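Q: Hi! First time doing this. I have a protein sequence and I read that you can turn it into a structure. Is that right? Here it is:
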Amino acid sequence: MHAAVITSFDAPPAYGEHPDPVATGEHDMVVEVLAAGLHHLTRAKANGTHYSSSGGFPLVPGVDAVVRDGAGRLRYAVLDDTQLGTFAERTVIDVRRSVLLPDDIDPVRVAAAMNPGMSS
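A: Yes, that's right. Below is the predicted 3D structure, encoded as structure tokens:
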């Protein structure tokens, strides 16, 4: 799988190969990422300035996205603190931290608007 990968806080992400995600928890599922938001929270966690940044590497940035689940349904998902974010072809979500979306929505618009909309 390909992803944007951060190996240190003083280097930009590099696009490259990354291990496939694995669902390990009862409510986890591997999903295809369609569109991920790039906003202040994403940048702060990626550069280590957000209080929730773990400092563990390698790190795939991204905290939310519009995804497609295994049944083909669209979801908006927010990730818990994890090293495997949404700037990847696939990620793992906790289905309880997602909402189903209509089939005819624009994933890019939803991904771009949700975090700023919720914080306003």
